[in-house]
Design goal:
Layout lengths: L4 E10 L2 E11 L4 E5 L6 H8 L7 E6 L4 H4 L3 E4 L13 H6 L14 H13 L15 H13 L5 E5 L7 H14 L4 E5 L3 H4 L5 E6 L1 E6 L5 H8 L20
Parallel strand pairs: 3-7, 3-8, 5-6, 6-7
Antiparallel strand pairs: 1-2, 1-4, 8-9
Length: about 250
């Protein structure tokens, strides 16, 4: 089976200034990948290349064996922040149905199959009973789950998420990653995150972006790898310990 993402000797530059250099990576189907790196290292650029919004300066990138502008039809994208106007009167089901755009006829009312698939997607993220709730009234974690449902409604083979837990509380963040872990049973998942210590308990591999791009199994991520990536004395702190005070998490 072909990798879901393959980069071969890929380079990208803005105004002749290299951002990514000699990228050679292969992400297998079914992987759960976290993309990390300092600000300005090229993480967003890498996502845009995968989505076909940018083209390599040198080398090539394939998504499901095709050029990205063809392979992206199999990608469900979840942005960091929703661009929806909070005053716009849309429900969770309305937002989820947006994932069906381009899957059926371009004009006219939604088909029954579209609504059924959208309801199924909401059920997959644990929001089956919230389909009629106004999107703006949902909590931050629920909004992110709706955005995942919107991506799932397009029937993708891979989810691409850009810092999906930014601004979420720690206990909500853990629940969110457990949802992604469950979805990973049938989908490849690639997400950008700054909190590698938290995510490391869930993902299978880590893509370190610092102009050059290196893929590590999660088990190989050490404090030295992080220090080399961020260029400072940093430590990897796991968040999976528990305190003895009544069984609560520290």
């Amino acid at each position: 089976m072909k990798p879901v993402i393959r980069c071969s000797k890929m380079q990208f530059a803005y105004d002749r200034k290299p951002v990514l250099d000699n990228v050679n990576i292969s992400i297998p189907d079914g992987d759960f990948v976290c993309v990390v790196g300092p600000n300005g290292s090229g993480k967003t650029t890498l996502l845009k290349l995968v989505l076909g919004l940018l083209k390599p300066t040198i080398g090539r990138i394939e998504v499901f064996g095709d050029p990205p502008d063809q392979g992206r039809r199999l990608i469900g994208y979840v942005p960091q922040n929703s661009q929806l106007d909070p005053l716009f009167p849309v429900t969770a089901l309305d937002v989820t149905l947006m994932g069906r755009l381009g899957r059926t006829r371009p004009f006219g009312a939604w088909l029954g199959d579209d609504k059924q698939r959208a309801r199924e997607a909401l059920a997959e993220v644990g929001l089956a009973d919230h389909h009629g709730q106004h999107f703006a009234s949902l909590s931050g974690g629920q909004k992110q789950r709706v955005l995942i449902a919107r991506a799932l409604a397009s029937d993708p083979r891979m989810l691409l998420l850009d810092e999906p837990t930014a601004g979420l509380d720690a206990h909500i963040e853990e629940s969110f990653y457990r949802l992604l872990q469950s979805l990973n049973e049938k989908l490849t998942i690639v997400l950008v995150s700054h909190d590698l210590g938290f995510v490391s308990g869930f993902v299978k591999s880590v893509i370190c972006v610092g102009r050059e791009v290196v893929v590590h199994p999660t088990s190989d991520i050490t404090g030295q790898v992080i220090a080399d990536l961020y260029g400072s004395d940093m430590r990897l702190v796991r968040h999976d310990h528990r305190c003895s005070d009544g069984g609560h998490q520290c």
